[in-house]
Write a structure and sequence with these properties.
By secondary structure, the protein is mainly α. The chain is built from 14 helices and 2 strands; from the N terminus they run H-H-E-E-H-H-H-H-H-H-H-H-H-H-H-H. Strand 1 and strand 2 form a beta hairpin.
Length: 305
């Protein structure tokens, strides 16, 4: 028996949104990105071509003079080196400690709720408050760190932590790592929560140790999360500003200078808006290139694995 099937091609065609609807849907995002991303970037590159203090005096076109000065600026290259050191130490210390805490908290079960709150507190605190707090901790005369070293007989270890060019950067990096470890801990906890429990239970029944389960099951499952953590840590380190600015201002003698703190001082202390814009534009290019390379290597590694 033949059954007539109604034709619905016309209805399907009418239900599909036409190309005229697409611009309307994309318009808010395009306007937002144009106003808050494209226009500031273009303005920054334009300002980097000017010799201007930013206060109302006549701006003079300087061409590539600011970029030429930047290429030979020792302070900028020292700041870039400090940013790279911050990125390396952030990856080496933050991620392993965060992963270890996440694994321990996962094993703690319900009892980990209070610990999670305590571990997450540094990330909830203002960077300015943390900077002021640790400036007092590192104070060479009245700070508790040196007082504790004197109390246990390690007088030779007491230092002017933020006033010595040998220790200023390391002291601030330690505080940055302490503040940001909770973020990556939560990131790894989320990754561990997506692991099927049947895999770990089956391995446990087969006699696998906790270390074997972690190394053979949990760590491979977290590869994508680890790559994300490395990328976020790298990008965040290259554009870091607030805590180091509060604690040292980039000193002493630019030993803890970062690209962002150097840009800020150039614009708002030296009133060199054109040169400061060149520093900001260089920061954008460096972060973009590093992020693109990291994402490319990450995707290639994920494909090979």
């Amino acid at each position: 028996m033949n059954i007539a099937i109604p034709r619905v091609s016309g209805m399907t065609k009418r239900m599909k949104p036409g190309w005229t609807v697409l611009p309307v849907l994309l318009a808010p995002s395009v306007v937002f990105l144009s106003v808050f991303l494209a226009y500031p970037l273009i303005s920054s590159f334009h300002l980097s071509m000017l010799d201007w203090d930013g206060l109302g005096n006549t701006a003079h076109f300087a061409g590539l003079a600011n970029w030429t000065h930047l290429a030979h600026d020792d302070i900028f290259w020292k700041a870039l080196r400090n940013n790279l050191l911050l990125a390396v130490f952030s990856i080496v210390f933050q991620l392993p400690i965060a992963l270890a805490l996440a694994v321990l908290l996962e094993k703690a079960g319900r009892g980990s709720r209070t610990l999670k709150i305590l571990y997450f507190l540094p990330l909830l605190m203002s960077s300015v408050a943390i900077g002021v707090l640790f400036k007092n901790v590192y104070d060479p005369n009245f700070g508790p760190l040196n007082a504790a070293l004197h109390a246990i007989g390690l007088d030779g270890w007491a230092q002017d932590w933020l006033g010595d060019t040998r220790y200023a950067l390391a002291a601030t990096i330690a505080v940055i790592c302490w503040q940001n470890i909770p973020f990556y801990m939560i990131l790894f906890l989320a990754g561990l929560s997506s692991l099927p429990q049947e895999l770990a239970e089956a391995a446990c029944l087969d006699g696998a140790s906790e270390w074997t389960i972690f190394w053979r099951i949990k760590l491979p499952h977290l590869q994508g999360t680890i790559r994300t953590g490395v990328l976020l840590s790298m990008i965040g380190s290259l554009r870091y500003f607030d805590l180091i600015f509060v604690m040292t201002g980039g000193g002493p003698e630019s030993s803890s200078e970062l690209m962002a703190t150097y840009m800020y001082r150039t614009v708002f202390s030296s009133f060199q808006l054109g040169y400061g814009s060149a520093i900001a534009s260089a920061m954008f290019l460096i972060v973009s290139v590093v992020a693109a390379l990291a994402m490319r290597l990450s995707s290639r590694f994920a494909t090979e694995v």
